[in-house]
# Entry
Amino acid sequence: GLKALFFDLDGTLAETEELHRWAFNQAFQEAGLPVFWDRATYKDLLWVTGGKERIRHFLDGCPACPSLSQEEVARLHRRKNTLYALALREGLAPRPGVRRLLEEARAAGLRLGLVTTTSPENAEVLLEALGLRFDLVLAGDVVPRKKPDPALYLLALERFGLEPQEAVVVEDSRNGLLSAHRAGIPVLVTPSLYTQDQDYREAGAVLEHLGEPGEPALVLRGPGQG
Ligand code: XBP
Ligand code: MG
# Structure
């Protein structure tokens, strides 16, 4: 039977990518870099999971940008995460139905895991801001290859000592779906702002969101989210 529920963070637990994008842009500006990621640019960049990896990927394809060392990219990314944490405190809500599903799953005896490619400090700040609790948090660089590689979900199964069919994953993106699917876990997809038109053919189910019918699917708040 079902023993655990695994949740992705960005886009699934909460609609966070506009906050990330704002924080990246602030960090670029502070560092004097001639870089601004608009929504269309960021949509493409989201195929590269992980903030450090995303910055590196962009710089590699930007002839007008200075070449930064790994240390400089890491510093830029730390500053981005500090700005992101500040923005989060201004208020963010979980996506519709998330809080209820987590409460009901816990009441039913399921174990809850947060499985994300975002940085651990981001996950921590967000869980605190939303007042949510997980039995397991796997974040960022705990595996060498991020989603869509299955490593993170395989590690999650190992930590709980479960077979793939004993868990269900909730994800919002093709990268997340593939990561869980390749680990053999059934996936429920709730598409988010940036992932509406992606391909979810491997999903067990696709729902607009986890809330009541008619609830607005996307609630954007905070800096850069107007
Ligand atoms: C989505 C990501 C993350 C965030 C940025 O993660 O790809 O990289 O966009 O976070 P999730 P960092 O698996 O939670 O959907 O800058 O901390 O990497
Ligand atoms: Mg996501």
In short: The pocket of magnesium ion (ligand 2) is lined by residues 8, 10-12, 172-173, 176 (CB under 6 Å). Helices lie at 17-30, 39-45, 51-60, 70-88, 98-107, 120-130, 151-160, 174-182. The radius of gyration is 17 Å.
